[in-house]
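EI: anyone free to look at a 410-residue chain?
SC: sure, send it
EI:
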Amino acid sequence: MRPLRACLGAAAAVALAAAGTTALVAGSASGATNSAEALSNRWYAAAPYLMPLDNDPPSAGAIMDATGLKAFQLAFVLAPNGGGCSPTWDGTAAVSSDTAVKSVIDAIRAKGGDVSVSIGGYGGTKLGQACSDAASTAAAYQQVITKYGLHAIDFDLEEPEYENTAAIKNEIGAARILQQNNPGLYVSVTTAGTADGTGWFGKQMLLEAKSQGFTPNNFSIMPFDGGFNGAASQTSALTNFNKILQSTFGWSEATAYAHEGFSGMNGRSDTGEIFTQADFQTVLDYATAHNMDRFTFWSLNRDRQCTPADNGGRTSGTCSSVAQNSWDFAKYSVKFAGVTPPTTPPTSPPPSSPTPPPSTQCKPAWSGSTAYTGGSEVSYNSHNWKAKWWTQNETPGASQWGPWEDEGSC
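SC: here you go
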């Protein structure tokens, strides 16, 4: 039986074999990423975990309707339980013949959303353990990318695999190959969180990533199941992890935050820690204030109220064990992505807001090469715009969900 927690882990990596790392068949993903329109990276960075085949899967469509959520992190792709270097869902359902997960993905995309797929997790045998080298590991994951036309993938590297240097060598090497062979692929690496940021294996993974020249979109830590006590301990760990990223890669503080992510656990953790909606808001405020790249959690399967008898008394894979309304925690992911969650539909249409009068003067012209922080004002296409959050090279007005708020003509 899979442990309730599937997001506690640390990645440890060693050198990628020089030979064979670019042997993946060219063009294997050339058409895959065109099978569905990609969302912005901000959405893939905000995608909460969802087990589509286990832990009483909720309706993704219902969550989208209730919250405005657009992206889901589907978990987990593993090696077959009986052995072999081919991708399966949870070790039992072959990706090659899958129709169940594909139907979930198709339904999400039909509503304007998309998915990332997470490989690894806490239980089962990982492909990095079963495959012979980085190239064959990457080829197995490429089957997943091609089958589902993925624009994003998450390497959730956890114990006991992260203690196996040969396996992590394959995983990190595969991540680099996939990044090279799938231009624009959003790649996250999820690892254990500790009070110091991350532990020895996590630090070894970062050093190995540096030696290989591999930089994913983010390195995310999971600050739970390690003696944490609410949001203050989590933000402290994120601060410490930022310092580790700085010292490892020679990055500035801002650059380190731009490559840092948070992956929390909603409600009661496996070790009995409690993380409430207020804790999520505090961490969200920290993440947005520091322009962090990722904010996610384990899991949507748990984002609902337990029965009164269970509430707070145990950790469940299907409910949070804290008082909540369904999908309360998903709304924090929506906020991170920059979209305001819908409220209860009004009984009558709300009055339209008056159009603001034209400004007398245009703000400085928007530039795609300039990084803007929240509150920055620019002009573009005879309108003034205000940045909702940190952004760069995202054209004002290109998307209604984008980072720019229209302030009217100028």
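EI: DSSP finds eleven helices and 17 strands in the chain.
SC: 👍
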